[in-house]
Design goal:
Elements lengths: L2 H11 L1 H4 L4 H30 L18 E5 L4 H7 L6 H10 L6 E5 H10 L16 H7 L1
Antiparallel strand pairs: 1-2
Helix pairs in contact: 3-5
The structure holds zinc ion (2 copies).
One zinc ion binds next to loops.
């Protein structure tokens, strides 16, 4: 008996036990919604990363990391946390990505991987040596974007 047959056999034998009315449906639906949400978040992320990557292939501006899972959008002039708070996107990236798109992809972001981004944030430099923390410039224009 192969695995598939085994599972089928198991299912038939325990058929009644699989029939939890309602709860199963709810759980399945919740998972499905979560999955749809995840996919749409992933797509907004991908779109944003592509826009800010040099040749349209998402990659870290410092080390060239290409795994989407490791990539993130960096506020070139800093102030990222405050900015996320202002637009209500403290929790995760998806809101920020949608905001960026709505703003027409302003020129204040770049793509970094989590390593380079964290190093830059904590130490003020990345050991790869390819990027620098730019001096925070508070122009009127940026102020209005932030508020
Ligand atoms: Zn990197
Ligand atoms: Zn780096």
């Amino acid at each position: 008996m192969n695995r598939k047959e085994y599972h089928r056999e198991y299912y038939l034998k325990n058929k009644e036990r699989f029939k939890h009315k309602g709860t199963v449906w709810k759980t399945k639906n919740r998972d499905r919604l979560r999955e749809l949400q995840r996919r749409s978040d992933w797509n907004s992320k991908l779109e944003t990363l592509k826009h800010y990557s040099i040749d349209g292939t998402p990659q870290c501006e410092c080390c060239g990391e290409r795994h989407i899972e490791f990539l993130t959008i960096d506020h070139i002039h800093g102030g990222g946390n405050q900015h996320r708070k202002n637009i209500g996107a403290s929790g995760g990236g998806a809101k920020l990505y949608r905001w960026i798109k709505k703003q027409g992809y302003p020129n204040m972001f770049r793509v970094l991987c989590l390593n380079c981004n964290a190093s830059l944030g904590w130490f003020g430099y990345c050991p790869h040596g390819n990027i620098q923390k730019e001096v925070k410039i508070e122009t009127d224009n940026q102020q209005s974007l932030f508020s």
